[in-house]
Amino acid sequence: MTSVSPTEPITVRVDLGARSYDILIGRGLLASAGERIAALMPGGRLAIITDATVARLHLPTLTASLDAAGVGSTVMTVPAGEQSKCFAEYQRLCDEVLAARLERGDAVLAFGGGVVGDLAGFVAASVRRGMSFIQIPTTLLSQVDSSVGGKTGINSRHGKNLIGAFHQPDLVLADTALLDTLSEREFRAGYAEVAKYGLLGDAAFFDWLEQNWQDIFAGGPAREEAVARSCAAKAATVSADERESGQRALLNLGHTFGHALESAVDYANERLVHGEGVAIGMALAHEFSARLGLVDDAVVARVVAHLQEVGLPVRIGQIPGQMPPAGTLLDIIAQDKKVSRGALTFILTRGIGQAFVEKGVDPAAVRDFLEEKLRS
Amino acid sequence: MTSVSPTEPITVRVDLGARSYDILIGRGLLASAGERIAALMPGGRLAIITDATVARLHLPTLTASLDAAGVGSTVMTVPAGEQSKCFAEYQRLCDEVLAARLERGDAVLAFGGGVVGDLAGFVAASVRRGMSFIQIPTTLLSQVDSSVGGKTGINSRHGKNLIGAFHQPDLVLADTALLDTLSEREFRAGYAEVAKYGLLGDAAFFDWLEQNWQDIFAGGPAREEAVARSCAAKAATVSADERESGQRALLNLGHTFGHALESAVDYANERLVHGEGVAIGMALAHEFSARLGLVDDAVVARVVAHLQEVGLPVRIGQIPGQMPPAGTLLDIIAQDKKVSRGALTFILTRGIGQAFVEKGVDPAAVRDFLEEKLRS
């Protein structure tokens, strides 16, 4: 704890009327979690939901800070990994929060990555029909993506994230020092979502990322700025469209192809993690846009070059092992996105920062494109 | 179906901004469910959640109406009774709704009493983070109480309704002819909640109930009016206080004592059903108010006389079997309601239609009062 010198955090306000909240971003924030939470909910108690890995690395710092501020807490640990987003863990956690006699004004605190955030958020949404919710995301992906927007949930045997609730947090603390303990691969995968915010709507941010990515990876001040600008971009989109009826779809840039690839490898993380799927998906979305004459090849080359420079994959062929044929990938896409009168919806682009929703994509064109990409 | 001649239904609007919806009340409404639902959600499909008893009596009428209007539906049946409000049924139903490939714009339809409504509502709130929700309540209790207000949920081993969501329906159809198949005891228990709306805030409605209760029980036009006025009373309270922070507590008139009695008999319905507990609880709340000098004995006598006239119990001694001592009942009350600095919160009254929230009730006074009532 003493090796970290906390500076004043950056604050991003998520504007959702009565459900508005702040995201604080800073290096070393975790050590001040106790006093910040005590100020937010005087007398409130916490159920801390975390996974075994995060608990080992960072829980002592959090509980020391809570104890010092007089915030009572109970820790509930789930196994690390996607399989914890299931009914059994959800039921067990709901029962444990009730057994700890927490009331509606007390809070569930999610301390971990996206899995812990999604699961703990759904528990917070459900116990006593909605408790307070605080997030301390510990991965780059969860700091810039899943901790903004209020989506919570678990998986069903019919698919991922199919059972859940929209439940906004009351506070998010993103401590960028926690990212120092991520593997290079996990950090890089989270970075794909950072780059996405530039590509979908902010060319100046993408320029800045090209200049500053090394400082972001190294943990310099650019890391806080990158997280803050990403959260601000997502917050602006979510504020405009909380329940995902329109523009929020832009956040899916790279995700239609990416999800199909993740599904094709059965979500086997040793072959492909989410952010890597998004990176390949973004490269494909740009290449497909170029194929349709929407964007110049030079733009595509620039996007691909940046993703490659940071070490992200950009071609389907970089995924280890056998991939299914184009027809199968197209079936997955069609199933995922709902075909409307024979046309597919994709996020396409007219240039860096100029993504848009296209609802009239011809499935045959996607199939031809994928066939070619599977060969290359 | 031909024995029923549907008249124009009464409409009660529940005003909740973007989540506003209509409750339609009328004799024979069920036969028009299909066309009304088709008009509300053109092209939408339904997951009908019901129990075995309701399915046997009324499902053919509903499905015939849906088929005639071209509304596709899948029926999912749960066992009748409170034990269906559990995690296992919740998980099974969520999975079944997904297996039926229903999308966010499709609807879950609750066709039954309070148990089915609470369970189906929580399923609707959770699948795809919120689907449309339609209620066709089939008991008097659910028509006047649980189908208004958006509370959904299941039971945990720590207590009733502790896991759930606030999820407003898109439409409620209250067909008063369905109540013809209720047992006398079940109808009467639902009537206790109707009388409650008069007692808590509408003296003219209570006068009217004293005049018209026989027509309500017999299924005359007063029944629709009683359901409509009850729904309107609850709707007004809920609109003013959707998340139960203040005035909504008035709806608990009779429920603090009533819940303690239900809990004391372990929710054994053969000894006491919810509405009977509420009837005894309302009599006790009036008697206790008189004891505190808040209301005249003549008012208490009038309230007790009406409840007795319709056949509802008004004394603890009318509950079959042994009751626990006053201290145990007080413990249940204190646990249920959270003691704030040694004082209890009760809904008390200054007269018919003049209930109010009193947060400073002395536990010792409640104990003395209950001791005396257990002897009488």
From TrEMBL, chains A, B:
Q: How is the cofactor bound?
A: Binds 1 divalent metal cation per subunit. Can use either Co(2+) or Zn(2+).
UniProt keyword annotations, A-Z: Amino-acid biosynthesis, Aromatic amino acid biosynthesis, Cobalt, Cytoplasm, Lyase, Metal-binding, NAD, Nucleotide-binding, Zinc
Q: CDD domains annotated for this entry?
A: DHQS
What domain of life is recorded for the organism?
Bacteria
Residues covered by the 3-dehydroquinate synthase N-terminal domain: 76-188
Recorded GO MF terms: 3-dehydroquinate synthase activity; metal ion binding; nucleotide binding
Task: Spell out the reaction equation it catalyses.
Answer: 7-phospho-2-dehydro-3-deoxy-D-arabino-heptonate = 3-dehydroquinate + phosphate
Q: In which pathway does it act?
A: Metabolic intermediate biosynthesis; chorismate biosynthesis; chorismate from D-erythrose 4-phosphate and phosphoenolpyruvate: step 2/7
Q: What is its main location?
A: cytoplasm
InterPro entries, A to Z: Dehydroquinate_synthase (IPR050071), DHQ_synth_AroB (IPR016037), DHQ_synth_fam (IPR030963), DHQS/DOIS_N (IPR030960), DHQS_C (IPR056179)
**Cell compartments where the protein resides:** Cytoplasm
Which Gene3D superfamilies is this protein grouped with?
Answer: 3.40.50.1970, Dehydroquinate synthase-like - alpha domain (1.20.1090.10)
Q: Where does the 3-dehydroquinate synthase C-terminal domain start and stop, copy by copy?
A: 190-339
Question: Tell me, what's a Pfam family for it?
Answer: DHQS_C
What cofactor does this protein call for? Zn(2+); NAD(+); Co(2+)
GO:BP terms for this protein? amino acid biosynthetic process; aromatic amino acid family biosynthetic process; chorismate biosynthetic process
- Give the EC number: 4.2.3.4
Can you tell me which residues bind Zn(2+)?
193, 255, 274
Q: Which family does it belong to?
A: Belongs to the sugar phosphate cyclases superfamily. Dehydroquinate synthase family.
Q: What is this protein called?
A: 3-dehydroquinate synthase
Say which species the protein is native to.
Pannonibacter tanglangensis
The gene for this chain is aroB
